[in-house]
Amino acid sequence: MLPVIALVGRPNVGKSTLFNRLTRTRDALVADFPGLTRDRKYGQANYDGYEFIVVDTGGIDGSEKGIEIEMADQSLLAIEEADIVLFLVDARVGMTVADQAIANHLRKQEKKSFVVANKTDGIDADSNCAEFYQLSLGEVHHIAAAHGRGITLLLEQTLQPVIAELSALNDDGTGDDEELVDLYAEDGEEIEQEAFADKPVKLAIIGRPNVGKSTLTNRILGEERVIVYDMPGTTRDSIYIPMTRNEKEYVLIDTAGVRKRKKVSDVVEKFSVIKTLQAIEDCNVVLLVVDARDGISDQDLSLLGFALNSGRSLVIAVNKWDGLDDYVKDRIKSELDRRLGFIDFARLHFISALHGTGVGHLFESIDEAYASATKRISTAMLRRIMDMAQADHQPPLVRGRRVKLKYAHAGGYNPPRIVIHGNQVHDLPDSYKRYLMNYYRKALKIMGTPIKIEFREGE
Ligand code: GDP
Ligand code: GDP
């Protein structure tokens, strides 16, 4: 599970600046869900090797309506969902009444909170920050977000211990696929997938509110061949439901909270971006549900972006396909083509969760995607395909010399990674990279998962 860090503090202390810096290395993907999450922004962060989810809570003013109301309105949820709260203060402005109010609130929470004094560039940080110790939240960390200073140290001190604690707590026993990488065949023919055969496929059903996730989950669980065991959720609010279908085992990660028994506490929204991000992170296959009647919204694209970033297998269900006339269906299909055309690996299904139409077929693509993602491919095979691709269509000349691909081997799977060594490979144009990717996809019959190709200079 990825740790979740929430940024809180008054407006103008530098939260957005820090947010942007943390998410920069991994194309900042910001999910903005108007009406649902107010001013919160979510991003997948990968900073100096630290991976986490970062939430920018928007400004807490703390003055006019009283801090508690503001907090409840804006940041309470973000704080509640977070593992770590970074409380930003402005080293140049010094301590304010609003800072004290926020600190009072944080001290009452059982959350790991850290005071972070920003804008320490060009000032005497030690003497300017001393007063923040009065906030009684422990050490005051100095950073200059705009210049990227102090951030790695901060993460090392705050994030590291929490990651260690979380991984001890969250070990759900289903195991990671990492240890299987060294089972990769160095040579010889394709190897059977027995290592994966007895592992349930973890399926995350995600989508924005009202697209039909709950209806679909109930439909899947309601089918008679499915045996359901309820299990308490292991992370925040998602519920993990083991189920069997056609004698195959799955674990359905229910982000819609269908099977949740406890009364949902008032502050917890039905839809949670964090829950969705964690489910994506923890699953093998993402089932993204979209609403045929609404078309593809920016929110759908945000969720899609998160799924793509994570490298998970993906199946897309276009739901509410019932009761539409052919003209409307055609129009929707061409819109999907236009907006989703860039994803060439995911199967698209037109379903009606309400009537059950097409739901069974989803599992064919889910199984296919999982098999593709975990498929073991030998070095010999990867090399042969590389040679064939090169023979069919030569790499281009760069500065008068031909780019030459020399050697290929597997770099891991889930998603499949292929490492190609050669001369001037860093100059390969994107068009040729895409050609290679498609060539591998066709030759290996890989569908439902992205393929990552890494290029390395030399042997
Ligand atoms: P937010 O309202 O808390 O999200 O604050 P912003 O990130 O929008 O930053 C407010 C202002 O502070 C902007 O003008 C930033 O350029 C500036 N700022 C942010 N970080 C730093 C820093 O490390 N040093 C200095 N000098 N200015 C900063
Ligand atoms: P969730 O918020 O994504 O879990 O969405 P729900 O499952 O609660 O569904 C939202 C609304 O869409 C409900 O009124 C459902 O009855 C309706 N709905 C769900 N699936 C379908 C479908 O396949 N066809 C139609 N016509 N309505 C559907």
TrEMBL record:
The GO terms this record gives for MF are: GTP binding; ribosome binding
Which CDD domains does the record associate with it?
A: EngA1 (cd01894), EngA2 (cd01895)
Classify the source by domain of life. Bacteria
Q: Which residues form the signal peptide?
A: none
Q: Binding residues for GTP 2, per the UniProt record?
A: 207-214, 254-258, 319-322
Its GO biological process annotations read: ribosome biogenesis
Name of one Pfam family that matches? MMR_HSR1
Note whether Zinc occurs among the keywords: no
Q: Where is the EngA-type G domain?
A: 3-166, 201-374
Stored SUPFAM superfamilies: P-loop containing nucleoside triphosphate hydrolases (SSF52540)
The record's listing under InterPro entries reads: AAA+_ATPase, G_ENGA, GTP-bd, GTPase_Der, KH_dom-like, KH_dom-like_a/b, P-loop_NTPase, Small_GTP-bd
Entry binding sites for GTP 1? 9-16, 56-60, 118-121
Q: Which Gene3D superfamilies match?
A: 3.30.300.20, P-loop containing nucleotide triphosphate hydrolases
The role this protein plays is: GTPase that plays an essential role in the late steps of ribosome biogenesis.
Which NCBIfam families did the record assign?
GTPase_EngA, small_GTP
Write out the similarity annotation: Belongs to the TRAFAC class TrmE-Era-EngA-EngB-Septin-like GTPase superfamily. EngA (Der) GTPase family.
Quaternary form?
Associates with the 50S ribosomal subunit.
Name the record gives this protein: GTPase Der
Tell me what organism the protein belongs to. Pseudoalteromonas porphyrae
